Amino acid sequence: EEKLHMVNLDELENEAKYVIPEAAYYYIASGAENEWTWRNNTQAFNHFQIVPRALTGMQDPELNTEFLGMKLKTPVMICPIACHGIANAEAEIDTAKGAKAAGALFGMSTYANKSVQDVQNAVGDSPRFMQLYLSKNWDFNKMVIEESVKAGFTGFFLTVDALVSGYREANLRTNFTYPVPLAFFNEWTGGKGEGQSVAEMYASSAQNIGPDDIRKIKDIADVPVIVKGVECAEDAMLAIGAGADGIVVSNHGGREVDGAPAPIDVLPEIAKAVKSCDRPVPIILDGGVRRGSHVFKALALGADLVGIGRPFLYGLALGGAQGVQSVIEQLNKELLIDMQLTGCKTIDDIKHAKIDHLDYTAD
Ligand code: FNR
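^ thats the input. predicted complex w/ FNR below
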């Protein structure tokens, strides 16, 4: 396999459209209702401006960073996404390989096609967290948590913003069902975990997730739990008060509440609350990140890592593990340029970079 050639992440979407079956492509690409939130996630980065810095005397910026004790080669991470098998037969195995090669944190979905053991066999040690869609059935949750930890996943994302599926018209038009068995459900049902619709999957998951669930997870496995899907300071405080070890500022890529604010717009207020509370925790931002400058802005406004969703799946479809690696490295390349032009030698320096917030009504 060769590296995937691209000039930017957006052009991958057009190419991926030709290699991913239609219903699966729209499942990936679409958002909820009118898709305003989905579009706005990227556009809202324009509300902030990176102020270039002159005469800094700095050269050779570096991307290495640490997150909850993990040594990473980039602040870009792979968001948990269901069913990588719709993009590539190697599915999460290739994603894990690509993330490892790039030195990036890999978030794996409860709805993955490959098992946690498959991933461990393929990559050995790598920075990786498992994502949890809590089921109503805690025997199932226990199975997911215990097997994940046993297979080298060193923490969890607890997704709290998708208790039911958003109203996704594209899935209704195409009658989308997951075309590749989801490994944990297959195991749970003794090999019958095929062909569910998104709505059916969500119906089996718990809708009443509350603060106590963080403790319940930690009682099964004492590892970090990051709460994914927070869009206001109150919820960040609720999560931290309940024992969360990190939060993801996210609206699920515009797939749940259409009309929800862009993560980048709410990040400053959330970061302020988190950093000034009794037990500050790291912050991840995802949603609409397509450029190195988006990564830069998120880091400068309070994020410690920045997640990408759809683009890596397009990379996976077009180029397997190398495709995933190439997508991360494309963002790295753009980010390094902005670091040089703002005099930021390290990822920590970006956190003190000068950002303007001017209202350009004419763009
Ligand atoms: C997702 N996302 C998601 N999140 C999660 O916690 N568990 C999951 O299984 C999934 N599945 C999923 C499938 C697909 C096709 C997409 C596009 C998204 C949400 C994901 O983790 C992330 O929040 C968004 O994808 C980030 O936005 P961008 O980068 O796709 O714009």
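The first helix runs from residue 10 to 16.
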